[in-house]
Design a protein that fits this description.
This protein is an alpha/beta fold. 40% of the residues lie in helices and 19% in strands. The protein has 14 helices and twelve strands.
């Protein structure tokens, strides 16, 4: 039985874990007791109970010290992994307490992560210096999954398909450019078409990617020589600079990174390329808490707004927040005010 299975069946509590970790770090039950603000017999009792629950010895007792067994060392590695996560939670809680902020997790496709993301992070950090930022790089579909599972807060991708729980908005778009070596025969042309690349060694993106599919759609079967394949536009540009071939890439990469020995030339027909921002859908994330309150959901599309307006007009509610427009409100009949009878307070003898 492995260490994780032993921990599961033993049902260790936090006091046992903390005591065991402190003894491992100090090498002495007496010193561990001082750090834990308890007595040495209490530490010995906790360790003994833990050994009985696990089914193997953790320490060899020697005069004045203890020596960890191989089982204890294996257990300590698992415990340290857990404490790393606890330390991360403590850091986040401390940041929230001190500045009211925590950690922002950002994911971006390689073409964006290697080009414009550092500039965006710098501008954000200048405005919010207390926020800790964690940046991850992966493929667009992986980033969409990260956003849907709340592994990341925000993502920047080059393309994205429909993903439940993820909303996407295009923040920049332009056409792909053809990158060729600076001394290539095509470098002097103002515009290139698929026929110009006939017989040229072509450096392509991986098969199966949406960008690769869009590029392949404008070429015939024998127009190019498929020489190399790599997943990153930055790598493609570097290979073009070394004279290994030509390719089509996102212009953000070629423009911001300024690779030496590479010429970027407009290409026709247009192949859309740019940057898309994706984030967690508010409606999907709070569905369980708002499913009984449909009128509280913010309408995200014109169709949703029209449907919400029609529902409000057809449903008469007692609260003014959900009343229809003023012209269609039910008439309000006010009861006449009742005034107390007037009494003559003047004295008759006056």
């Amino acid at each position: 039985m492995g260490i994780r299975q032993c921990l599961y069946h033993a049902g260790m509590n936090f006091k046992q874990i903390e005591t065991f970790r402190t003894v491992m770090l100090t090498g002495s039950m007496t010193v561990a007791a001082k750090q834990l603000h308890t007595s040495q017999p209490n530490v010995s009792r906790v360790i003994g109970k833990l050994e009985a629950e696990l089914g193997f010895e953790l320490f060899d007792r020697l005069p004045g010290r203890v020596v960890a067994t191989k089982g204890a060392e294996a257990l300590f590695r698992e415990v340290e992994r857990a404490f790393v996560g606890l330390d991360s939670l403590s850091d986040s809680a401390r940041a929230i307490r001190n500045a009211g902020v925590g950690t922002l997790r950002v994911a971006a496709a390689a073409s964006i992560s290697l080009s414009v993301l550092p500039l965006a992070v710098r501008r954000f950090s200048e405005k919010y210096p207390q926020v800790r930022i964690v940046c991850d790089t992966s493929e667009s579909y992986v980033i969409a999954n990260w956003i849907a599972t709340q592994h990341c807060d925000i993502g920047f991708v080059s393309n994205i398909s429909d993903k439940p729980g993820v909303v996407a908005s295009v923040i920049h778009t332009e056409s792909a450019v053809c990158v060729v070596p600076a001394r290539h025969r095509l470098a002097k042309k103002r515009r290139l078409v698929p026929e110009d690349l006939a017989g040229e060694r072509f450096i392509s993106l991986p098969a199966g990617s949406s960008s690769r599919h869009a590029i392949d759609a404008v070429f015939g079967d024998g127009d190019r020589i498929m020489a190399l394949e790599t997943p990153f536009a930055a790598t493609i540009c570097r290979m073009v600079g070394e004279g290994l071939g030509v390719s089509l890439v996102n212009p953000i990469v070629s423009r911001t990174m300024k690779f030496p020995g590479v010429a970027a030339i407009p290409f026709k027909p247009d192949i859309p390329s740019g940057a898309i921002c994706c984030a967690r859908s508010w409606r999907h994330a709070t569905r369980t808490s708002t499913i009984s309150l449909p009128a509280c959901e913010p309408p995200s599309t014109p169709c949703d707004r029209r449907r919400l307006t029609a529902r409000r007009r057809s449903h008469r509610c007692d609260t003014p927040h959900h009343w229809p427009p003023m012209s269609r409100r039910p008439p309000v009949h006010k009861a006449p005010a009742r005034h107390p009878p007037r009494t003559n307070t003047r004295c008759r003898g006056s």
